[in-house]
Amino acid sequence: MCYINHNDHYSEFECYTDIYSCCCYLFSAALLPLPTTSNNGITGTWTPALNNTATTTYTFTPNAGQCATSTTMTITVNSSVTPIFTPIAAICSGSALLPLPITSNNGITGTWAPALDNTTTTTYTFTPMQVNVLYQPQ
Question: What pTM, to 2 d.p., does this model score?
Answer without folding.
Answer: 0.53
